[in-house]
Amino acid sequence: MTDPTCTLALDIGATKIAYALVPDNAPTTTLSTGRLGTKEGDSPIEQIRLVLLAGLKAAEEHGLSVTRIGMGAPGVILGPEGTIVYNGETLTEWAGTDLRGLSREVLNVPFAAHNDVRVWAYGEHHLGTGKDLTGRVLYVSLGTGVGGAIIEDGIMMSSPTGTAGEFAEVVCSDHAGLAVRCENIASGTGLTRYYNEAAATQLDLPAIMERFHQGDGLAQQIITGNLRGFGQALGALVTVLNLSAVVVGGGVAGIGAPIMDPITAGIFDRVLTPNKSVQVLSTSLGAQAAVIAAAKYARDNAF
C-alpha cells in the first residue's frame, strides 16, 4: 500500500519562508506547517533548501509521499518554470535564481512556482472567493507592497516577460489629490510612511489603525483618502478591462472595513454605468491561503 500523496508548498517572503504539506485528498487542509526566517541563515537560497528538507522530514513523519513542490515567491517570475527575472526591494540580488533547480537538488519531483500574488490569486480563484465567479476577475493584494493578477474564465493571464498582473506602478490619487504610484499610497508600508511623516511619529500600522479607531483625524484622512484614490484607479480598470469582479486580499485588506469600504467607494466613483454590476470581494481562504494556493498552482501546473 502506497503512502497518501501531498504537495510540499512554500510561501517565500522577505522576512519568512512558510511551508506546509497539503494532502491531495484535502486541498484546503494544511499539515505540519512551519517557517524559517528568510535572512536568518547564510542566504535566502540556503534557507529555502532547509525549508524543503524540513518539509520532507515532516512528510515522512506523517506517512505522506511528496509528489510535487509548489512555491510562491516575490519578484517577476517566469511561471511555472520558477526562474526569477527581476527583483524589487523585497529581496535584493534575487534575480537569476532558479527555484526549480534548487528544488530538484533536494527532491526530483514535478515543480511549479510563480510570483506570490499570482499564486495566491490562482488558489483564491479556484478554491476560495473566486470559485463561483465567471468572466474576467482582477485580484489585488495589499501587503508590504501591492500586487495583482487577472484571471479570465479560470485561466490566469500570462505573458512572455512574467509581468502580467504587476500593479505597483499604476498611478492614483492620494488623500491630498497628488498623483502617486499606488504601491506608495495603498500598501502597508506606504500607509505607515504617510502617517509617520505627517504626524512625526514612528508607529507601525496596527498602532496607526488604533488611532484611526480612536478618532484621530489625520489617520482617518490618510487611510480613507489614500484608499479611496486607490479604489478610483481600480474603478477605471474595471471599465477598461470589463471586469466582473475585484477581489482584494493581503494583510492590509485583512484589517477589514476601514480598508475595504473606501476602496469599494472609490471603485464605484469611477466605473461607468454599464459596469456597475461589478462585485468587490474579500479573500476567503484564510491564514493559510498562500500555501494552499501554492499547492493548487502546483497540482495544476507542475512538471
From TrEMBL:
Pfam families: ROK (PF00480)
SUPFAM superfamilies: Actin-like ATPase domain
InterPro entries: ATPase_NBD, ROK
Protein family membership: Belongs to the ROK (NagC/XylR) family.
Protein name, as recorded: ROK family transcriptional regulator
Source lineage: Bacteria, Bacillati, Actinomycetota, Actinomycetes, Mycobacteriales
